[in-house]
Amino acid sequence: MATQQKSFSSNLGAIMAAVGSAVGLGNIWRFPYTCGKYGGGAFLLVYLCFVFLLGSVLMMSEFVIGRRSQHTPIKAFGTLRPDRKGWMLVGVLGVVTSFFILSQYLVLSGWTTGYVWDAARGTLGSLGTDAAAISDYFKAFSTDAWRPALFLGVFSLLVLAVILGGVQKGIENVSKVLMPVLVLLILVLCVKSLTLPGAGKGVEYLFSADFSKLTGEGVLAALGQALFSLSVGMGVMIVYGSYIPLSDNIFKTAMWITVCDTLIAVLAGLAIFPAVFSCGLDPAGGPGLVFCVLPNVFNLMGGAGTVFAVLFFVLLTVAALTSAISLLEALTATFCEHTHASRTAGALLFFGLTTALGLVFSLSMGSLSHVTVNNLTLFDFVDRLNSIYLPPLCALFAILFFGWVMPEDEVKDELSNHGTLSIGFYPVLRFLARYVVPLALLVVIVSGILS
Ligand code: PHE
Prior knowledge:
It is built from 18 helices and two strands. The protein has about 450 residues and is mostly helical. About 75% of the residues lie in helices and about 0% in strands. The protein is globular and about 65 Å long. Helix 8 packs antiparallel against helix 14. The protein has helices spanning about 10-20, 25-35, 40-70, 75-80, 90-120, 130-145, 145-165, 165-195, 200-205, 215-230, 235-245, 250-280, 290-300, 305-340, 345-365, 380-405, 410-415, 425-450, and strands spanning about 370-375, 375. The protein binds phenylalanine. Phenylalanine binds near residues 22, 24, 26, 234 and 323. Phenylalanine (PHE) binds near residues 21, 26, 231 and 236.
């Protein structure tokens, strides 16, 4: 049996940290606008199927790979099948994916941090209910060189500070405090939103399924969203898997995380759509929904609007923080395992590299917008890489490894904690892992290439 070098102190700690990774901008920023774009309830239904049938299986497979091997992604694949070293490349792909995702994530997180400040100072409030002024403000903010850079830097430093604190004292303790805060904030916002006049239309929008609006593109977006939201397909959950206490039930842990992540996404929808409908605004506002539409909603609330605006952007920033922490941890831990560098050195190195690249992506919205790859700005290019290509590809290889390459007795031994837990779900899991998940991922990848 493997001895554990580093681990979370308890099952609760492991769940909180992994929920912290899963719940992020994907839930509160991306889920509502994607759901709005593809018709509300119908998208939600498809999303739920993907999250539970595919996403949770991927999460379990990454946890098994991480905890069984007690290594970070690259070595994990090499240790579990020492005779097939080529699979280590999947780990490399995961690390590269984490690197690009974190660099881009820092830009968006910098915006949410900036909006906390702007909401608190009353700048957002002073824009009133003029929709054009609010979106012009967002445009000016995101294309500026200095302000996004400043907030990106502040956010990155917060992430760095937690990583330097270590796995238990940093990541676990911070997650244990921030996750309940996040739930409280989202509940307050839901109550406010649901009690606005005409809120019912928003609830109806989220829960009534109009399949005529759900295109093939919407189905693919639902699958991409499921992967992103559960933080699978980039090795982060392999690293967190290696920190899960050896006595924990991996199946239950993954199910808890999946349920919590999904609940938070639905709650985010309930906090946003009723308010948007109540104010007569457009639910299909796209990526600008939270930055361009919600300030209008808050300003329509009058005096209390400022408080709710601050609470909302704090919520977004907290969610982004625990996700960014998991990405920097994955990079730092992998680097340190291979080079034997100190944790401080590894964290500083990747903090520096991802912040620098994040700054370049941020500038590509404004002064560097003339630099393009395939006619896309650098930010849009990396966004495409991060949503359509890298995570599904990495997830595909990881699930093929889990379903077809890793010795089956080891998979069963790990899921059952050496035969001490019953694993009646195993035949279903194996079927999903061998056939259903790879096929679905293949469809996403091929249609991504063709689009
Ligand atoms: N799951 C996070 C979110 O929903 C994003 C993320 C992806 C975090 C991959 C870590 C790794 O925002």
